[in-house]
Every structure is written in C-alpha cells, then in structure tokens.
Amino acid sequence: MYRFLVTALLLCTGGVLQAQQQEGAAAFSKDIRQPGVQVFDVRTAEEYNTGHLPNALQADYTNKTEFNDRVKYLDKQKPVYIYCLSGGRSSKAAQWMRENGFSKVIELENGVNAWKQAGLPLEGVNEKKPQLTMDAYNKGTAKGWVLTDVGAAWCPPCKQLEPVLTQFLKQHQQVKLMKVDGGNDTDVMKTIGAKGLPTLILYKDGKEVWRKQGVATAEELAAAVK
Q: Is 0.90 surpassed by the pTM of this model?
C-alpha cells in the first residue's frame, strides 16, 4: 500500500492535486515487476555502478543538464518508480516530475539503504569488465560502412533510440554496428570525443562522415549513408 504523506503537491498543469507517494522496499520490489513500469535511479553514474535495482534507468538529479535531457524520454503516462541512496534526491526529483505532468511517481522510502536492509539483491555489483581498446575500435571501424553507437542500457534516450537503430540496420544491411558502452568504455569515449549519451558516429572506410549526439531518426541515418 502507498504511504500518503500529509502534504500534497499541487501540479502546475491543470491544478490537479497529487499526493506524494512512497513505498517500503518489499512493496516497491514487488511493484517494479509489473509490465510497463519505469524504474528510475537518480543517483550519480558512479553510485549506479556500485549496484542498482533491476532494469533501472539512470539520470543524476544533481546534474540538471543530464537530468533534464534524460527525463524527457520517460513516458509520462506510465508509472515511474524512483529511488536514490536514502530518499532525499528522489523526493525532490519526484516532486519535479509530478509538477511537470508525470501521472504516477512512486518513491522508494529511504532508498537503496532500505533496499539493502530488507535483504533485497542489487544488480551490477562488482561487475567489472575490460574496456574496449582504441586498437579494437579502430579495427572495427576501418572497413566499409560502420555506425558507432555510444550508449548504455540505463540511459533513457538510448532506450528510445533502440528501435530506430533496429529499423535502420535492417534496411541498410551494408552498415555494421559498433557498440561502445557509455558506462564502461570511457577511454574510447574520450578519444573519439563522445561527450553525451547517445552519440552516433558513422564511418566509411575508417573516416568519420557523420555524427550526432542525441536521438536520431531513421531518416537522418538513411540520409547519412547516401
């Protein structure tokens, strides 16, 4: 059951009254398994990489540019289950989201700290993997048409981009895909100048011919290979 606090938040859009809603770890764990739920981690990327809830997307609430850029790719009509380390940042982020048209935002009471105390598992704990090397990257982009996708599973706009890439690659089978993990392959990202997620870079025989930071359309990608 939801814990309704005494203070209600007045949404800016339409004057609709929406109460702050929090759930304990056990209820939160159960509810995020529902179809269509969006799980949203508003800690830093470094905190996220120490362990996160299943299927969680990430945006650092304290980095306003990053937060505002990523939150717009969440579906306002679907439930958002939000959390941080102890509840402070997620409470502020949830309030902002309610005031900006999100229909249902549920907070994890006391955050990851409460999740751990309840004995619930986190994903991604101690999952270190070797970085992609520049040598491997250069070899992978040296011949023919190659599209580099710098993204991450936890990045909301990257999720938005996935079906676009699937459609494009199906229609342009001469183009190979090179994946760069935005949460792991930081050396490659720095070298190729990928400063945000997602970043798309198109190569022809090892030469960069097109680049875009952000979500591209299938039409933009198709025009780039002509």
A: no
